[in-house]
Structures are given as structure tokens and as C-alpha cells.
Amino acid sequence: MDLHLAGKTALVTGASKGIGLAVVEGLVAEGAFVVAGARTLSPELAALVAEGNVEFVAVDLAAPDGPAALAERALAGRGVDILVNNVGAVAPRPDGVADVSDEEWQRTLDLTLLAAVRLIRAVLPELIRRRGCIVTISSVNATLPDPLVGDYSAAKAALGSYSKSLANEVGASGVRVNTVSPGPVETGLWLGAGGVAETVSHAGGGTPEDVAASAAAASVTGRFTRPEEVADLVLILASDRLGNVTGTDFRIDGGLIRTI
Ligand SMILES: NC(=O)c1ccc[n+]([C@@H]2O[C@H](COP(=O)([O-])OP(=O)(O)OC[C@H]3O[C@@H](n4cnc5c(N)ncnc54)[C@H](OP(=O)(O)O)[C@@H]3O)[C@@H](O)[C@H]2O)c1
């Protein structure tokens, strides 16, 4: 199926690895040009830059002025048809959510909620001009609050609520706004150094492999989602083939959430 993405320009955050990198790779494979924001240029992203399909922008999206700086670079170039708000991070709290400090809350809110809010504020007039679309990566934790990631869960819930408000606001302007909510995905966030599996392991939860195996077993498919699978869902949502889909959240969790 042709997704009609060839010739479009996308702006993707958290684009150097994990889900963001998979989204960039998928968009480039469909013929789109991508402006990719992250703090560091990974070898995989550098290869796409060398092929001429990607512009990399080094940016700290947790800094209050980071998202606007990224938007400025994209708008000064080829503009933006598709905005993918992917950046976000988890700091597991083995001691629970009650003692999370103001500084820790602010860090979570800056990266996992406000980076998207600030970037959308800067890019929305362009998206309205182009009748573009927004896909934002949320999480199952938006509706599955977990004290291990309580501040992250709250930030993702807020991101979902904000996205729905925005969809209601801009739908008549032709801009679609949807979210994607993955369960555990095979990326550094879960499986890398300092990731969820290692942090829970250090807190006495068995080996990192045990922690990951137990998370995989919690879904009905018995496995983590692959980043490319999340990327495929993002691409389909970005396509005008889904031109009447807006204000919706799409879960991709291997059946982890058992309720309807
Ligand atoms: N993996 C999962 O199980 C899972 C599940 C549900 C939802 N999600 C969500 O999916 C999204 C992507 O997660 P992931 O698993 O792909 O994470 P990841 O593998 O840790 O990748 C995170 C990306 O964000 C960038 N990044 C981190 N901090 C940044 C900052 N301050 N400024 C700019 N870029 C920054 C990283 O690049 P640099 O380090 O180079 O900056 C990297 O490209 C997040 O919103 C996450 O909450 C993930």
C-alpha cells in the first residue's frame, strides 16, 4: 500500500536511537525527508544524513528553549508536514512515587510532556498551513499508572489529555492529532545500561534478564514490541489514508492491557 509519504517533510524528536530512529528509517524508506532532533548523532542516523535524506539537529529537548530551536531549524528548511513527538525518558523509582523530588518531577515533565507541548506551539501554524498531522508517542502507563514509574505515568497521562484537547481544537483546520501507546519495546529505555530492567535488577528484582522476561510474560504475545513495529503504526497514522482518524490513541502492547 502506498502511504503517500513520498515528498513529505517530517520532524522527529528523540531520533538517534530506539523508536525514534526506527520512525526516521521508516519515513525515509517511504520517500520522506526527515529533520531529526536528539542530543547526539548515532552512527545509524549519521548514515541516513550521509545519504541526504535526513538533517540532524543537535538539541536538548528538556531545555525550555530546545523545542523552539529545533522548530526554527525545520521551518527555515523544507517546512513540516508531519510532526512525530517521540522524545521521552523513564527514571525508574524503586522506592515508589511519593518521594520523587520537585527537581525529578520537573525533569520528567520537561522531557516527557513539555518538549511536545513546546514543539507543537512552535510548529502548529505551519501544520495548519499544510494541513499536516501530529503523532505523539505516549505509553501504556498513561492508563496504567505504576509507582515504579509514577511521575512518567502522570506525564504520559497529561500528554494524552493535551493531545485530545489539541485534536478537538485543530480538527476543523485539517490537522490530525493522534497518540501511540506502546507497552515494553526492545530499546535502551528498557534493556540498555541504566534502563528499566537494570534499575529494577539493582533494586533486588533478579537479573536484568529476569526482569525483562517477566515484563514480556505479562503480555499475551509473551514478547516485547520491536521498534520497527511501533514505527509502522506511526507511519500509517501519518498517512492521509487515515485522513479521518484524529483524537485517537492506538495501543501496541502485545495484549498487555487485558481490559476493554
Ligand atoms: N521502550 C519502551 O518500552 C517504551 C514504552 C512505551 C513508551 N515509550 C516511549 O517511546 C519514546 C521513545 O522511547 P525509546 O524506548 O525509543 O527510548 P530510547 O531508546 O532511550 O531513545 C530515546 C531517544 O531520545 C533522545 N533523547 C533523550 N533525551 C533527550 C533530550 N534531553 N533531548 C533530545 N533528545 C533526547 C535520545 O537521544 P540522545 O541520547 O542522543 O539525546 C534517543 O534518540 C519515549 O517517549 C518513551 O516514553 C517507550
Describe the structure.
The chain has two domains: 9-183 and 226-245, Rossmann fold (3-Layer(aba) Sandwich); 184-224, no CATH class. The longest helix is centred in the middle third of the chain and has 29 residues, at 102-130. It contains nine helices and seven strands; from the N terminus they run E-H-E-H-E-H-E-H-E-H-E-H-H-H-H-E. Helix 1 crosses helix 9 and helix 7 crosses helix 8. The two termini are 30 Å apart. Strand 1 (9-13), helix 1 and strand 2 form a beta-alpha-beta unit. The chain has a seven-stranded parallel sheet, with helices on both faces. It is an alpha/beta fold and 260 residues long. It has helices spanning 18-29, 43-50, 66-76, 102-130, 150-170, 188-191, 196-202, 208-217, 227-238, and strands spanning 9-13, 33-38, 54-58, 82-85, 133-137, 176-182, 249-252. The mean pLDDT is 97.
Question: Can you tag this structure with a few keywords?
Answer:
binds NADP nicotinamide-adenine-dinucleotide phosphate, 14% strand, 2 domains, 9 helices, Rossmann fold, 44% helix, alpha/beta, 7-stranded parallel sheet, 260 residues
